[in-house]
Amino acid sequence: MPRIRSSRILLSFSVLLMSMGCSTEDSPLIGDTPRPVRLTEVQAVGHQEIRRFPAQVSASKEVELAFRVGGEVVEFNLKPSQRVTKGEVIARLDQRDFKTEVTLKKSEFDLVKRELDRATQMMKKNLLAQAEFDGIQARLQVAQGALQLAQDRLKDTVITAPYSGRIATTHIENHQQVQAHQGIVLLQDHEMIDVTIQLPESVLSQMDAKRIDPSYQPLATFNGSSASYPVTYKQHKTQATAGTQSYEVTFTLVAPKGNHTVYPGMGATLHLDIDKIIADKQGAQRFVVPASAILDNDLIGQPQVWVFQNGLVSSLDITIQGVSARGAIVSGDLSQNSYVVSAGVSQLSEGMRVTPVVRERGL
């Protein structure tokens, strides 16, 4: 009886193994099941990314005018907002003491000049020592320098406009006593104005003034007006604005004419396509992909993305060239409108079967 029972157990175990074997062969392996992934469409750089930046208006050119000498102001009748032309008198000091000084220095110069003329005649007759003659020449040079200084001081009693513009503000009144280098007026160019914005370091780090398209003109709108005006890149600072991680970028334009007057200090909005001001490094075709799509492959020391095609993923080496508000800017053998995996990239392997659960359009 025990022998029969053992045979039955062995037979049952064999049938179970055969059944498990058949089940294994007929059922698909877990690894063959397509893995669900999220895909994002690749966009080539050049696709417009218009962003709005608050801006500040400033004069394209301004200067604080001052006298180089001190004295009493006897001519000053300008008011803030008044326009002046190049060479127009801004202010004048009392010149009496300065004219007297010029007359005195001129007399001293003429006296030494006559003395040198007599000394020259005596030298021709060998009636004067060379050392004495040299001393007279030296005194003449000193007198000439003193006369020139007095004449310059007289000229410095008048301030003229170095260029045509508008008086932004005045600091003195007529008949006031002023010191040398004390501010008199602030003169601003009224033909051109600047519009300044703050760009984050992530964008500014990719700017190259030599590669910015000079024909690209963003649009500026000014508070209180719906009209837009094209502006031209002028400059950008490489020192961060105090207390921020942003940098000043300045654009310039001809001051709007007509009913809407724009003054320095007013607010504006700049409509800027970021891609137009980011340098195209080495002339390579650049694309925008999500930062989450980039796999940092430590084995080969090369960043990669997983490209989706025909239900499979394959790795592609890329070069990271920067970042923008839309994502990472990369170059590589990508193409417009192709798809990359944008989530869970570390869980994939070469040639893995995947199925998209979400397809996002380009950033």
UniProtKB/TrEMBL annotation:
InterPro entries: MdtA-like_BSH, RND_pump_MFP. One of its GO terms (molecular function) is efflux transmembrane transporter activity. SUPFAM superfamilies: HlyD-like secretion proteins. GO terms for cellular component: efflux pump complex. Pfam families: BSH_RND (PF25917). Residues 62-182 form the Multidrug resistance protein MdtA-like barrel-sandwich hybrid domain. It comes from the Bacteria. PANTHER family: EFFLUX RND TRANSPORTER PERIPLASMIC ADAPTOR SUBUNIT (PTHR30469:SF20), MULTIDRUG RESISTANCE PROTEIN MDTA (PTHR30469). This is Multidrug resistance protein MdtA-like barrel-sandwich hybrid domain-containing protein. It comes from Vibrio splendidus.
